Amino acid sequence: MSADLIHMHPVHFEDDGTLIFEVQVLESDSWRKHKTVKTQIFRNANNQVLVVKPEDKADGVAIFATKTDQEIEEESGIIFNIHIFEDSKPRKFPVAFSTKWNNKTYIMCIEEVGNQMKVTFRERDIPTYISEDVSSMIFFKIPFSEGDRQFYMFESTIKENYFLAFEKDENNITHLIIKRKEDEIDQFTRLSYSAPPNTLRNQ
C-alpha cells in the first residue's frame, strides 16, 4: 500500500442520532464527500430564513429575512443542500453548503481578506474529494448545547473558533457573517435547518 494511504474507520452521526462506522481508505489530510441532505432551509435564532444572492454586488449577498411559505418555495437562494464529508483524521462533523441561484450552483466559503474573515459564495459544484486538512468550504457542525438536535453552530475549518453567525446592521438588516466566538454561549451563532414547509406538508 502507498505510504500516503491509511485505513480508517470513520465515525459519524446520522441526522436521527445513529452512530455509523464505515470502512474506508482515505488519503492522509483529506476530505471525501459521504452523502447529501437535500432541500433544507436555514434559520437563525429569531426564526428568520437565510436568503443568498451570490451575484448581488451590494452588501446583501447573504441575509436573514422573514419569508412566507410561498416565498420560500418560489425564491432562489433559500433552498440549500448540506453535504456531509468524511475526514481522514476524524475530529468533528464536517459539512459543506450549496445553493442554486439563476440555475447556477454556489458553494458557501470563508475567506480571509486582510485581517477580516468574511462569508462568500463561489460558483462551482461540490467536489467529491478535497486533498487538504482544512478547506474554505468545510465547516464543523457542532450542537449548540449538549444533546441539542435542533440548533447547531458551524465552525470554519480554516480558522479555529470562528463560527457562522448573524448580525444586524444600522439599517436593521440581519447579515450572515463569520465571527470569533468569545463567549461560551453565543446566541448569535445559534442556527438551525429543516426541510421547507411545503415538503413537511406533503409528508
TrEMBL record:
Q: Offer one Pfam family short name for this entry.
A: IL1
Q: Oxidoreductase among the record's keywords?
A: no
Cleavable signal peptide: none
Entries under CDD domains matching the protein: beta-trefoil_IL18
Question: Where, per UniProt, does this protein localize?
Answer: Secreted
Gene Ontology terms describing biological process: immune response; inflammatory response
Alphabetical UniProt keywords: Secreted
Name this protein carries in UniProt = Interleukin 18
Identify the species of origin.
Salvator merianae
